[in-house]
Amino acid sequence: MSSKSILLVGVPADHGSWRKGCLMGPDALRTAGIMDMLERLGYEVTDSGNLVSEPSTEIHHSNPQVHHLSDYAALISSLDQFCQTEVKDQHLPIFIGGDHCIAAGILPALARQSDDAGQEQFVLWLDAHTDFQTLESTDTGNLHGTPVTYMIGDPSFKGFFPAPAKPIKPENICMMGIRSVDPAERERIARTGIDVHDMRAIDEFGIAPPLRRFIDRVRRANGRLHVSLDIDFLDPGIAPAVGTTVAGGVNFREAHLMMEILYDSGLVTSLDIAELNPFLDDRGQTSKLVVDLIASLFGQRVLDTQTRSI
Question: 177 lies in a domain?
Answer without folding.
Answer: yes
